[in-house]
Write the structure tokens for this entry.
Amino acid sequence: MVAVLVLLVAACSSGGHTTQSAQNAAKAKAATAAADVKITPANGAADADPSAGITVTAVHGTLKNVSVHTPAGAVTGSLSPGGKAWHSQWALAISQSYTVTATASEGGQNVTTASSFRTLTPRSEFQTQIFEGYQQTYGVGMPIMLTFSQPITNRAAVERSLQLTTSKPVVGAWSWDGSEHLDFRPQTYWPANTQVSIDAHLNGVEGASGVYATEDLTQSFTIGASVIAVASTTSHQTQIYYNGALKYDWPISTGKASTATPNGTYLTIEKENPVRMIGGTPGTAGYYNELVPWSVRFTFSGDYYHDAPWSVGSQGYTNVSHGCVNLSPADAQTYYDLAVPGDPITVTGSTKAGEWDDGWTEWFLSWSQFVKGSALHEAVKAGPDGSSFVDSAALPASTGSSPLQAPAPDNWMSS
């Protein structure tokens, strides 16, 4: 009986050791899982690179939740397929504190890990300006034009920070003109009456080595009616198309042989009533100094659609201007009243080729040429839910025809 009692006590004691060992093993497993949830930047970092964002990785198990707390606002991110990694969507703000809390699960055991850090304060900064004004209206050819205060070498990072939202589906691309100018242009002209918003998540983007953006940029504007002008230097006529239909067909006079109006698809830049136009050498026969009403500019060098009562007799027959497109007073006023910045103007039949950057010449380039100016070499698909980058080669061929949806190829070349 004593022996049996000893055995029973031993059996009870043995069971207790087994339960304790299982608990210890579970704790060890949880500790291992905790050690294998990695958060970058590391806990305590004081000068984290904001352009790298936040990465959370579950070496064992899968991530169940990642949250980021910061005075700068929400930090969005995405979980990889399979739940092994999470990465923030945009760059982090400079000089900002962040706390990341991540929960991973392995074998039914949840483990939560946290990391608190601060992003660096850069020694050098760049700023970004957008040409488009808030809630202003522009023509269907208008590019989105960004200008940077410093040369940008990390151009792909800048492009990735840009998000477009459009009320109608649009396919376009970003393209660099030098190191300080970045433009967005649709593959074909914008759909008329489109609402456009840009959210440039630039704060924390490293534009060049050690040079960071310090602010985001947001802007909203409207694409208005489709107003497209085509001027022929040989037929001496201009057609004005409004929302896809021919509305006016007017006689014109363009530049004479020595001052030919250059070929190309330009965009209206600005308009004034009147504009003082000065040309030639004072005291010579070619000198002029005139206040010209109803003037709509389309090149930086000084070409306009404008009122020219002095050449009405030549309009429709011969070219006598100093390079502008001469119209009758009534026709010039009608076009002036329609025009907003970004309306396409195409000049054809001229012996003079257009010059790149003499005006907003983004439409001199074919679609494939424009996409090549992107650091990512990708197109952008935008719509009401935002935008994404896509392989331009995978897009269907454009069905836009000249002159209503897009200009003709090589439109700037001399005839």
The longest strand covers residues 97-106. Residues 268 and 298 are 5 Å apart (CA to CA). Helices lie at 2-35, 155-160, 329-338, 367-372. The mean pLDDT is 92.
